[in-house]
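Entry 14: structure prediction run for NAD-dependent epimerase/dehydratase domain-containing protein. Input pasted below.
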Amino acid sequence: MTSKLLVFGGNGFLGRRICQEAVHRGLEVISISRSGKPPVLNSPLRERNWIREVCWESADVLNPSTYRRHLKGASGVVHSLGILLEDESYKRKLKQESGSANSPSYSWASWLPSIGSNPLIKNDPNFTYEVINKQSAITLARAFANTIEREGIDSEDLPTFTYISADRGFPMIPEGYINSKRQAEEELLRHKDVFRPIIMRPGFLFDEMKGPQNTRTHIHHLLEFLNMSNKALLGGNFECINGIIRPAVSIQQVSRCILSKITDPKFEGIVPLEVIKEA
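Run finished. Output tokens:
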């Protein structure tokens, strides 16, 4: 089995860091997105060298015929797509109303709930929990399973399928969000005889490389403060509060954890937030 990793949504907020970590670990990396373009990063050139090591390909996750050839010989697939809200048009409206990127109000509008940029699904009429969070993962998993079965299965070295799920639902977020994630998980775990399913359950995501003025960083600090306050004042003894105040996790931690699980031939199953935080 070759060390070829396919990352669907590889130029998104989390996907790009998964690609970067995989390159650093010596894997052959192919990013699949609708645009097929690499991400535009503002970091120094030396920190962007990994981008040249990734093969950036265009495909539609809901149409296996557009990417089936890439599945052949793959040692792993990562599904890094998802939406927190089914209608994210309000974000664009708020940003337009708040003016240019230099205006103070622009920055707070930019943090509004989102899993990140998902190039495969922009302007897609199927921008729903059912299609993006669930059906796209199931479609991809079935296509990968069929490819593996045609090539033959080595029970000692099964390929991996990694799904970016979620720790739990969020206040004021429709139940359909977490329900779609859990339903996708159930389907993926049924394929454990063909590939090793790896289910990641991160919480709120932030980027360690962003500066202190980044809004996601502000939210991260707020969540950490609330968690410390919960433990210090309440001892973390109230499950109802523990279920609401959950720690944030960086996309670098998630990426490191993903690659560690992928390269562990004995691991399969769910990776909770507490384990991801240790990466």
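Notes: The CA atoms of residues 20 and 50 lie 6 Å apart. Will compare against the previous run tomorrow.
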